[in-house]
Specification:
The chain is an all-alpha fold and 411 residues long. It has a single domain (13-193, 202-399), classed as Up-down Bundle (Growth Hormone, Chain: A), CATH 1.20.1250. The chain is 78% helix and 0% strand. Helix 13 runs antiparallel to helix 14 (284-301). It is found in: Cell membrane. Keywords: Cell membrane, Membrane, Transmembrane, Transmembrane helix, Transport. GO terms for molecular function: transmembrane transporter activity. Residues 17-397 form the Major facilitator superfamily (MFS) profile domain. Belongs to the major facilitator superfamily.
Length: 411
Amino acid sequence: MPQAVVPHQAGTKGYRRMTAALYGAGLASFAAMYCTQALLPALSANYRITPATAALTVSLTTGMLALSIIPASVLSERYGRTTVMLASGIASSVIGMLLPLSPTLGVLLAGRALHGVALAGIPAVAMAFLAEEVHASSLGSAMGRYVAGTTVGGLAGRIVPSLVVDVSNWRVALLACSATTLAGTAVFALLVPRSQFFTPKAASVRATMHNLIAHVRNPVLLKLFTLGSVLMGGFVTVYNYLGYRLTEQPFGLAPSVAGLLFVLYLVGTWTSVVAGRLADRRGRWFVLGAALPITVTGLLLTVPHALAVIVIGVGVFTGGFFAAHTVASGWVGAVAHRDRAEASALYLFSYYLGGSVAGALGGLVYGVGGWRATAWFVGGLLVAGSLLVALLVRENGSRAKSFAGSMATAQ
């Protein structure tokens, strides 16, 4: 009698391979996504452009990724999760290797926009893949490990270029970051288990639009989509322009020294895993209710002209953000009882579009009012997020007790 196929559970070999593979995919995608963020001051100096213009190398990538999320999700429904994720990793690695050859700023910006399109396949599919293949009782921790991989990738995408640019130039720094993306893609390709529960389906444009509209009309999902947007908008803004503040007076840090602040990304690696486990035990509402105030507190600590306080503030801000994102993304899948891939795609569309738009607007704010004005801008986004969380807790607290349904999203 053939053995029944069961989802991967924590402690099994399949679970370890699955989470390690998704960790590598998350690392690859986020290293590529933010590979120019630590280089923004260097790009400003090289091309004699404003912080807002330099930040387009980040905003164009996240913006095009946002627009490509839903098409990538639809492709994964037809051709398979692993196929789309692997193609995404390979394409983004190749584009990343070519970016340092860009002869002009225009070519670099076009390449980064294309980078966003190529990258979309990983975040669009990763959580749907986990939701299909991992047992519900282990899904919260599995998602936490994937998000942890994205935080390490985000760290690598910032710290590697910031260290290399000090001893070389921005082109070599980009190449070093692209090598990190290639390594993460290789880990995914070598370790990912064969899909056990995926069933291909040919989704029509009309059916997809119907599903998307149905999700948008769900008031709980709409709040979660908006929450993801304001969270990511604030996070990208802080990390886009913090480097300018630290390399300018009164701090005047070297790029490599300022870049060490990105090590605080590891706080997010830890809090994303802890938040997933805590949400499994105590409920999403409990974790979200604590994460937003923590994030706001961290932001306030970045305002004083004291480097030690700023370092603490960025660590607290980063930890709070990743805890909130981990839980919010998981909540989407629990609320969307059907067509979870589309719900996940809408969350990610809102998430990355928020990062793209707010990240660009934040540059204009920084150019006019410096860091204090930028902190007010981000604070406004976080206050809006806190209000959304309050509404979610009030309206859905009784239904937010388990993380087990979790989803189809990502970072």
